[in-house]
Amino acid sequence: xxxxxxxxxxxxxxxxxxxxxxxxxxxxxxxxxxxxxxxxxxxxxxxxxxxxxxxxxxxxxxxxxxxxxxxxxxxxxxxxxxxxxxxxxxxxxxxxxxxxxxxxxxxxxxxxxxxxxxxxxxxxxxxxxxxxxxxxxxxxxxxxxxxxxxxxxxxxxxxxxxxxxxxxxxxxxxxxxxxxxxxxxxxxxxxxxxxxxxxxxxxxxxxxxxxxxxxxxxxxxxxxxxxxxxxxxxxxxxxxxxxxxxxxxxxxxxxxxxxxxxxxxxxxxxxxxxxxxxxxxxxxxxxxxxxxxxxxxxxxxxxxxxxxxxxxxxxxxxxxxxxxxxxxxxxxxx
Length: 334
Hints:
CATH topology: Rossmann fold
Number of helices: 11
CATH superfamily: Alpha/Beta hydrolase fold, catalytic domain
CATH architecture: 3-Layer(aba) Sandwich
Radius of gyration: 19 Å
Largest sheet: 9 strands, mixed
Shape: globular
Distance between the termini: 44 Å
Strand content: 15-25%
Order of helices and strands: EEEEHHEHEHEEHHHEHEHEHH
Helix content: 25-40%
């Protein structure tokens, strides 16, 4: 499906399609936006994004508020931008276990499985655009998925952007409420609002999300899973919570940041209680092989910074980092 957004300048071309995963019968949804008229493609101007543990790519990267979604802004800045849903999320294949009661199955789609789905998307985009490398952005748990990919030998990653990235924690994390883990979780976007606003100081909670944005986000999020068995909810695989228990809160990281050899931008948020400053900084100092790296903390923002009033600071930081002329090879050649 291809459509044009008539309100953007330059005009944005949008496309949604399904591609094959590495597993027969499982397809992955890819969202794509680019400027109208873009006919040549390059590693420096191509970006693929991976969502977090609960909400799919359309919910995190493509909600049309204010000047447009994050994907719209990136496309108008001259980028061929893509976003993928891991299996079990959004428009990708819902696994058979997700058609049964959640307690009937084991946790689905841990990060290592999602990393295979991201790799399939990267390979598809490279073939489709005739490029050898591309930029990768991961948010929250999606940063784990991106990190697994980028840490592989000869990973085709031009630059790596990690937004509020999940990392090691000596304290429990909010995503894990305790108790037995089911195959998937039923999540109410409407009920999530209180948890979203609560990390902000009380006097700032009312203005954290501009008027009307949450309602738009809720509507777009529910539209990603119209077949959920409980009205007003979406289904989210529980593998990410299993990752927290088996890796992030027991000192067993899923990838080694020192294996990543491309430029890295890490974006944190002042009021993020899901990825605290100590967690983000501990991750940042471990990128010892990156030719250059940057850590930016957005003030007066939470874990969901990309959908909040200060989101433009994050947008500008990502675009500025991607726009910089230095790539891995350029920097090392100096």
